[in-house]
Design a protein that fits this description.
Length: 254
């Protein structure tokens, strides 16, 4: 993006963030579901789940809970984008001397900020529940980088859904499979404990490598090849989703 496109993106992002600040229940609602799941798994089901390690179960499941928080949050991007389209905001912006790409990037950056706030809230609750880590500053930065990539990848998928949806419900419904995906991964139980076909799917779907990488960083354990698999998935999804979103956006405006 050129300098004027960056300036336009900054102005439009400020507009979107003001809307979020006027209705903070969006962030609160996004954080409630993963926190409720965390409480349920830790205090109700945790005692019956064997992870094969001595670490606290809250430490074990937190990476998956963070991904669920983000998957829940990106639905609001799709929802807000759909409302902007239906309200004619995009047509107004098109008649103004602003960069076209800045409209989408404003929604994406707003999603990033809102979801990072939700993630911080979830981590705060996890600390109250007993989550502890000796991770270094570098490890925390690596976790943050992975979560940022995950948010961007899912947000661009949300942009596609928001631009393609025919109704409000359709705009946000796309996130349901994303929220469900961590349950068929190593997020809550080791994949080896699952039946054969389910274990194979859980082992090779993207969430497992991401969860295992974050868990290893928090536990100060060797990461191995998981981080490269996770990055390959995240970058691949981000590039493909971005490409499709831009194509759909241009068709909408043509």
């Amino acid at each position: 993006m050129t300098s004027y496109a960056l300036a336009d993106t900054g102005v439009l992002t400020g507009r979107s963030l003001r809307h979020v600040l006027r209705s903070p229940d969006t962030i609160i609602t996004t954080a409630v579901t993963p926190i409720a799941l965390m409480l349920l798994f830790f205090y109700v089901l945790g005692g019956a789940i064997s992870t094969g390690s001595d670490e606290s179960y809250v430490n074990y499941m937190l990476p998956g809970i963070l991904l669920i928080a983000i998957a829940s949050g990106v639905a609001y991007t799709s929802y807000r984008l759909f409302l902007d389209l239906q309200g004619g905001i995009f047509d107004r912006f098109q008649s103004m001397p602003i960069a076209r790409s800045s409209v989408l990037w404003a929604h994406v950056l707003t999603s990033l900020v809102a979801n990072l706030v939700s993630v911080a809230i979830v981590i705060g609750v996890a600390l109250i529940m007993g989550f502890r880590t000796g991770a270094s500053v570098g490890a925390w930065l690596a976790v943050a980088g992975i979560l940022v990539l995950f948010t961007l990848a899912l947000t661009w998928l949300a942009v596609i859904a928001g631009l393609s949806a025919k109704s409000v419900d359709g705009a946000s419904a796309f996130s349901y499979p994303l929220i469900f995906l961590p349950f068929i991964s190593s997020a809550f139980v080791p994949t080896a404990s699952m039946p054969g076909p389910v274990a194979w799917f859980a082992e090779y779907q993207p969430v497992t490598s991401i969860v295992d990488t974050i868990r290893a960083l928090f536990a100060q354990q060797p990461i191995g090849s998981d981080i490269w698999v996770a990055l390959a998935w995240l970058v691949g999804i981000l590039v493909v989703a971005y490409g499709f979103a831009i194509v759909i956006y241009r068709r909408k405006l043509s």
